[in-house]
Design a protein that fits this description.
The structure is a single chain. The protein is α/β, with parallel strands linked by helices and about 350 residues long. The chain has 3 domains: about 5-220, P-loop containing nucleotide triphosphate hydrolases (Rossmann fold); about 220-265; about 270-335, Alpha-Beta Plaits. The protein has helices at about 45-50, 75-80, 95-105, 110-125, 140-150, 170-185, 195-200, 220-250, 255-260, 280-285, 315-325, 340-355; strands at about 5-15, 20-25, 25-30, 35, 60-65, 65-70, 80-85, 155-160, 190, 205-210, 215-220, 270-275, 290-300, 300-310, 330-335. The strands form 3 sheets. Strands 7-8-9-4-10-11 form a 6-stranded mixed β-sheet, with helices on both faces. Strands 1, 2, 3, 5 and 6 form a 5-stranded antiparallel β-sheet that branches. The longest helix has 29 residues, at about 220-250. About 30% of the residues are buried.
């Protein structure tokens, strides 16, 4: 089985004729961590509800763990676990009682149930609180309990919807590590989140959904590289248009040319280099490089450098610093973030919809 999740022209239309999911084609490879991103109202929650057999589809096809969500819903349910954003546990039951209830719901073999629950409680480091009532737990402990409850029947696929919202940084990292460990054990993880750093850090592949459609799909780095490519292509097209207008030599073109120039995006690459022994000769040598636009000495051994983007620009900077006796402690590039990608893609989609494309 190549795909843990695959949909073909999946559609959901509600009773008020609102099309929440519009011919969605979504693919998540088996035994990977797949991220699902999208603005509010994009159709993410509706999609997850269909994939987990909570609501019926209107049209199209979808298979989860190799089973059709409409024809084989029980097979799908037996192979998935769900950790919702809002913890759905019984407040007046203890941690262990909640997990035991889920185990009984899935008919977990009574002979192995206690050991399985013990192992899972230890896995998420919450066994010490197994006899505490859920209502007395912190948000992080409640979320850990949800994870245990979702895993008690040993699902192949685990859906997590905003699993770290409201959690402190330490607890977030614990859950991130847990997701990676579960994936290493062979489970497919489906992560829905608005935390771009979270998705970038742990996901193998990302689907961005907007207006009920998948509008982008790639690895986190692939999406960032594509944004850079698109910006460069857009600038190239703008420059070609400007040159054509200037060659026409018509005064009326001046306003349009100025507008096009203002729409050019900055193509320079900005890097920060930490050097323990910055000196004037080193800075002067950097400023003389053809690939360098600007050098700023920021104190504490930090150089902020603006470069002409190329495959060798950073190499030239490193070589120059070393040639002038510099001791480089670290280099940080300011490449586009996943948030930059998300904003660019969803803004483009909304513009196309507004223009009727």
């Amino acid at each position: 089985m190549k795909y843990a999740i695959e949909t073909h022209d999946l559609v959901k239309v509600y009773d008020n004729d609102f099309k929440a999911v519009d011919n969605l084609n979504l693919y998540v490879e088996n035994k990977t961590i797949g991220g699902i991103l999208g603005p509010n109202g994009a159709g993410k929650t509706t999609t997850i509800k269909m994939l987990t057999c909570l609501i019926p589809k209107t049209g199209g096809e979808a298979r989860v763990a190799g089973f059709d969500i409409s024809k084989q819903p029980d097979e799908v349910r037996n192979r998935i676990g769900m950790v919702p954003q809002l913890v759905s546990l019984y407040n007046d039951l203890t941690v262990r009682e909640n997990v035991e209830l889920c185990a009984d719901f899935y008919n977990v073999d009574q002979k192995i149930k206690d050991k399985k629950i013990d192992d899972l409680l230890e896995l998420v480091d919450i066994k010490y609180a197994q006899d505490k009532y859920v209502k007395n737990l912190s948000g992080g402990m409640q979320q850990k309990t949800s994870v245990v409850a979702s895993l008690v029947h040993n699902p192949d696929i685990l859906f997590l919807d905003e699993p770290t919202v409201g959690l402190d940084p330490t607890t977030k990292r614990v859950l991130w590590d847990l997701m990676v460990d579960l994936n290493d054990q062979g489970r497919t993880i489906i992560l829905c989140s608005h935390d771009m750093y979270e998705v970038d850090k742990i996901c193998d592949n990302i689907n961005i959904i907007d207006s009920g459609k998948v509008v982008a799909n790639d690895t986190p780095q692939g999406l960032k590289d594509q944004l850079l490519h698109n910006l460069e292509e857009n600038n190239r097209h703008i420059r070609e248009t400007i040159l054509k207008l200037e060659q026409e030599g018509i005064d009326e073109n001046r306003e349009e040319i100025n507008g096009l120039k203002s729409s050019l995006t900055d193509e320079s690459e900005k890097i920060t280099v930490m050097v323990s022994n910055i000196n004037e000769d080193m800075v002067n040598a950097l400023e003389m490089l053809d690939v360098v636009n600007d050098v700023k000495t920021m104190g504490n051994g930090r150089l902020n450098i603006s470069l002409k983007r190329s495959e060798t620009s950073v190499n030239h900077v490193i070589t120059s610093i070393l040639a002038n006796g510099g001791n480089i402690a670290s280099i940080k590039t300011n490449d586009p973030t996943l948030e930059d990608v998300f904003v660019a893609i969803t803004a483009k989609t909304r513009k196309e919809i507004k223009n009727g494309n």
